[in-house]
Design brief:
The chain is α/β, with parallel strands linked by helices. The chain contains 10 helices and 10 strands. The chain starts with 15 loop residues before the first strand and ends with a helix.
């Protein structure tokens, strides 16, 4: 795994990859790398115009890239259901699902269409619902992987079942940390459930360290403390292409293992090349993971 880069991605002439939040940032870098390796990539986001622009940029570099765009709003269960239904109708096996899209630290508490706190609803419940509804197509592929992107912020996270939606108290980073912890716990529990029920789907978690994306600016705002740091102190953040490497390793490396967690290898996992990441103790609590799984099924109105 030492100094693993996109040059290590195995080439293939088939395989369908679906990437949420892929018109910019980490997801966009995932799309570039996977399409260069021969994957058929569906890029996903809320803005079709961004989708068109992103595909054009990829095809400038790789005219033969097999890339397309599908609109989805992970803050809307109906939108997720509509996309999943469209894919089920196509009946094409899905080899790779990268749960990458995210919302980070909006200063005021916001809600999804379905009334969930925006970060928990989008980052966790949206991806939970999407994965559940695409599971039949993942199971049809011989080598299916689901990679769920978490964050170093999960280290400070706690799953607060008494106030999952931060209605009693909303602290932006606290809510974000809970959502990213939920992402990691979902990835680990999905692997256990897959093994238990014989789904044949490999679930892996990854995180990008501290990377130069627009997540801080679009979430907290350009003139927030984090937004100012991202805008005027870019050297504090590694390039998004570097930050995408742990996700791409988890998605494509023959050595990546189900139930593992990968992140950068330097400076407390904030930058560097892919390596096994440290799982916070609270993410290892299987009773909490099972409860989160059950609660999430009820809230997202899905069943695995």
């Amino acid at each position: 795994m030492k100094n693993w880069t996109v040059s290590n991605i195995p080439q293939r002439n088939d395989g369908l990859a679906i990437i949420t939040g892929s018109t910019e940032g980490i997801g966009y870098e995932d799309a570039i790398a996977l399409s260069a390796a021969g994957w058929n990539v569906i890029m996903m986001g809320r803005n079709p115009q961004k989708g068109v622009e992103s595909i054009a940029k990829i095809r400038q570099v790789n005219p033969k890239a097999k890339v397309s765009f599908e609109k989805i709003d992970l803050a809307d269960l109906y939108s997720i259901k509509a996309f999943a239904s469209k894919m089920i109708a196509r009946d094409e096996p899905i080899n790779l699902l990268i749960n990458n899209a995210g919302v980070m630290t909006p200063p005021k508490r916001l809600e999804t269409v379905d009334g969930f706190e925006l970060q928990f609803g989008t980052n966790h419940l949206g991806h939970f619902a999407l994965t559940a509804q695409l599971l039949p197509l993942l199971r049809k592929a011989a080598d299916a992987r689901v990679v769920t992107v978490s964050s170093v912020a999960n280290r400070e996270g706690q799953i607060n079942f008494d106030d999952l939606q931060s209605t009693s108290s909303y602290v932006p980073m606290k809510a974000y940390s809970q959502a990213k912890l939920a992402n990691l716990m979902f990835a680990l529990e999905l692997q256990r459930q897959s093994e238990k029920h014989g789904w044949g789907v490999t679930s892996i978690a990854a995180h990008p360290g501290v990377s130069r994306t627009n997540l801080l600016i679009t979430g907290a705002g350009r003139w927030s403390g984090p937004g100012i740091a991202r805008t005027f102190l870019p050297f504090l953040f590694q390039p998004s292409a570097q930050g995408a490497l742990p996700t791409l390793y988890a998605a494509t490396s023959p050595e990546a293992k189900g139930g593992f967690y990968y992140g950068p290898n330097k400076l407390s996992e904030t930058r560097g090349f892919p390596a096994i990441a440290k799982i916070p103790a609270q993410a290892e609590d299987r009773s909490v993971s099972l409860k989160l799984w059950d609660v999430s099924q009820k809230l997202a109105k899905v069943e695995f």
